[in-house]
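User: Quick sanity check before I run a bigger batch. Here is a single chain. Can you write out its predicted 3D structure?
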Amino acid sequence: MAQLEYRGGSWPGGFLVRSRDGRQGFIPKDWYTYVNLMYIPRRCLTCPDLTNELADISVGDMWLEEYTGGWSTIIGRSPRGEDILKEAARKDIIRIDEISRNHILRSHAHLFAYKKEGYFVRQRWLRVPLNYALQRPSIGKRRWLQESLLLALILILSNSLIRGLVQRLPLAWLGRLSSWGRKGAKLSAYRRKGMEKEL
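Assistant: Done. Predicted structure follows.
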């Protein structure tokens, strides 16, 4: 393999692999959402931290079309972190454009909901001790059911026998299932945050 890109190609990108002999394989981003679920490490299911909240600087993917072409989300979380970012910008190592909290929420509303609300559902089902001093959000029955079903799907897909069977399905089938599930999760997350107008 010569090159592997997790978000290769034009927006929204996809899993792109280029071989040394010039061959190329590509799976659109929405298509491999459920493929990713088959390989989630068990410990990640009970981690509430999406954005490395204890780090001085957090860097992540900016999942908005208006920020295509090499943009990342960077959050300076301490005076030292902010100083490092300002110095890098002053030296033209990076370019910084400030964005609002709403941009970050709009970019990853479904993942914030998965980590900040779904954590408590998964923690309860998996009987993992609550090791974090977190503010427990109010989780309605519908949300509890959604997160419980998602956990069940993750556990089913991570079974080696099931994973082997799913891998034999045509990629287009997985793509349609993945796109449908991702859109539903994102819409649900936006509605909970009163952000339907942002879709």
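Confidence is low (pLDDT under 50) at residues 195-199.

User: Great, the batch can go ahead then.
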